[in-house]
# Entry
Amino acid sequence: MKRRSFVAAASAAAASSALPAQTAGGKKIRLGVIGCGRRGRSNLRSVLKLSDDIEVTALSEVYKPNLELTLKMVPGAKIYPDFRDLIADKDIDAVLIATPDHWHAYMTVEACKAGKDVYIEKPISVTIHEGQTMVKAARKYDRVVQVGTQQRSGKHFQEAAAIVQSGKLGTISFVRTWNYANLYPQGIGNPPDTDPPADLDWDMWLGPAAERPFNKNRFGVNPYQYAHFRWFWDYAGGMMTDWGIHLLDIVLMAMAEPGPRAVSTFGGKYALIDNRETPDTIMASYEFPNFVCTYENRVANAYAGGLPNYGILFHGTEGTLYVNRQYWEISTEVRRYREPQPRVEPRMSAARGDARNPSTDDHWRDFVAAVRKRSKPICDIEIGHKSTAMALLGNVSLRSRQRIDWDPMEETTENKEAQTYLRKQYRPPWKLEL
Ligand SMILES: NC(=O)c1ccc[n+]([C@@H]2O[C@H](COP(=O)([O-])OP(=O)(O)OC[C@H]3O[C@@H](n4cnc5c(N)ncnc54)[C@H](O)[C@@H]3O)[C@@H](O)[C@H]2O)c1
# Structure
């Protein structure tokens, strides 16, 4: 599919497919949840608000304390210690997959094969090849697959994208995205490897990832923070794919682009003294036909120059639009043609729009409507794959130490070093097969 038709198809979002008997005639969608951690449960809070349309009938979880917390929310749900039995259950119409990232592709493909619709958390995969296979599975088995990049359902994000597309900001030549924090010095700490806790099936948690001794941080579940698996290459891709994807997804939406033409990333672990593997400092630069986009992350210094500690800036010749989960704001440009240019600060806040809808609730509403209509959801798997691929490419460039020239429609590069990072081996017996 050519670039423009991809973008058009993505926004039209209206393919039809066969209606499963179970969800015909307005019956409730029966949902199984795989992965009952922090995000699994926050999704459930949105699902429970849609109780006329959807009911949670089954749970699968390999860590008992998380299962118990979730059962309190849905006391009658069936429990499947092995998610493959949940996927095989003919009385389930759809699944929510909220496990760590290294499981996403396998579980999504198997769920599609079993005729389930899927709500899959972001990032959809840990390699680009996995993402491609997920898109093929959704199409081959005619499934509705929504990706949990819920900012797309945020009305103020949609407004911000409309402003970018209206031309009001002039020619946009630079887009900047970032997350900053300061976790210096101990970060997530440095716990030793130990035996896994008795209430965790560690082998089933690792699944297709390499066999490793249990480490508290690799598993990462804790009551205070999002789980630390995010900071280990076997399971995820650091902030680049954890948060970067949310911001880059909005860049692709607003700029109506399928992906970058090149990427070059620098970074490393320079300051934190903990056992994470992913960088504490990273800067990815992406080249598009008419603009440059960056993603920056620091977790050893949180200074943001007066702006919030994360967000997106679209820099145009007439103005700059800032957007985060709370609001968007435009600063107009004051141009001067004399040289040297006088120091003129842009006028701030020429216009502002606040967030006014709960985006995860509305993302689920959209999923339910798509399941009923057999249409593509707002963040169809192909869109989620393109956004995930952009974030993953940032890490491919970092890890291969290469500038990568990329064809965003064919999803290919001639760069041999980069190619080795586009797919990965699964630990037997797990196999990703359509
Ligand atoms: N959309 C968002 O804003 C958002 C926010 C947070 C997290 N997420 C995504 O949600 C996913 C989960 O993140 P989290 O912070 O909730 O992690 P978490 O570790 O708290 O939860 C994951 C759960 O999956 C369970 N699990 C692992 N392997 C399993 C298996 N084989 N079968 C059943 N359960 C299994 C774990 O035991 C754990 O309870 C990640 O992909 C993350 O990127 C999305």
